[in-house]
Amino acid sequence: CWALPTALLCAYGFFCSVRPSEPFLTRYLLGPHKNLSESQVFNEIYPVWTYSYLALLFPVFLATDYLRYKPVVLLQGLSLIVTWFMLLYAQGLRAIQFLEFFYGMGTATDIAYYSYIYSVVDINLYQKVTSYCRSATLVGYTVGSVSGQVLVSVAGWSLFSLNVISLTSISIAFGTAWFLPMPQKSLFFHHLSSQRLSCEMKVMDCKNGAAVQDHPDVQRAPGWEDETKVPLNGEGHSAEERKQTVDIVKVLKDLWRDFLQCYSSRTMLCWSVWWALSTCGYFQVINYAQGLWEMVLPSHSADIYNGAVEAASTLLGAVAVVVVGHIKTSWAMWGEVALALFSFLIAAAVYVMDTVRNIWVCYASYVVFRIIYMMLITIAT
């Protein structure tokens, strides 16, 4: 049944994203709780996340596939728990840098959250479950940002209290993740043989009262059938059948072959290079936006609305994604035109945010930046 793992994963994604303290992280680090300087925060602490995230991406990608997703989802929850626990109680520059490493691990392991569900549902449900999982994180992030802004601006709660709420929410997510079913296969390391899979599909189709039919109009890559219709448990198979020998060298060769095959396409290469560069730029902007806002309008001298801005950009970005999803056009024809136009608008938004020293212009530029980025990522996908 696809509903249970999807519901559990969405619950995990929601609670993991409810972090009301995150829009106020820079203010918290510069404030009396941590008493760090701007130079320390921007030049010695935030870069640790950037480089640790980069260094962990490929190892986490391989580990996610080798361990079959769930352990890495648990690792993400644990990493975020350590991050927020240290954010509450750790003191000093080195401790906060260590905290940023764990945050880098928590963000790098996002791949497990977004890929887990494809190992436990039918291929015809991919689009539906993808929308559920992404919506869960967007709703969670919005709830966290709005609640953080309300608690700070209206209720007068301290930033320490917001971090306690964040830690509690992440702990709930971590507990939820333990109930996720363990997948029996993955993309590279844990294939099911085509013969065995064919038998399983026939049995499942017979149980559903349906005849097994081939669909010649659907084009699938070789071995794609290994990624569909796999039961969550291995019942009906002996231990010898379930045991798989993993050939690391073969897996790496398969990865290299897929890499060459994918990027022999000019269109794929163009969009992939854009995706890599734009994601790098996106992370840099969201990582240092709070620092820019702090310089434009110091939080100790005025009310700030970081939470409201994050919530607005997330909600409007989600609306833009839905609109793009319903536009009937050939992105193969117009995709590169859209890529060039919207990339120019992104650059303009970032330039305005940096040069116009007005907090409301900065906020508006940030919202525009995130909306366009989400739209382009959707088109690229």
Automatic annotation (TrEMBL):
Pfam families: Folate_carrier
Intracellular or extracellular location(s): Membrane
Transmembrane parts of this sequence: 44-64, 71-90, 102-126, 138-158, 164-181, 267-284, 331-352, 358-380
Range of residues in the leader sequence: none
Calcium found in the keyword field: no
Cross-referenced InterPro entries: Folate_carrier, MFS_trans_sf
Membrane topology listed for this record: Multi-pass membrane protein
Keywords annotated in UniProt: Membrane, Transmembrane, Transmembrane helix
GO MF term list: thiamine transmembrane transporter activity
Gene Ontology CC terms: plasma membrane
Family in the record: Belongs to the reduced folate carrier (RFC) transporter (TC 2.A.48) family.
PANTHER family, sorted: FOLATE TRANSPORTER, THIAMINE TRANSPORTER 1
This protein's name: S19A2 protein
Gene name linked to the record: Slc19a2_1
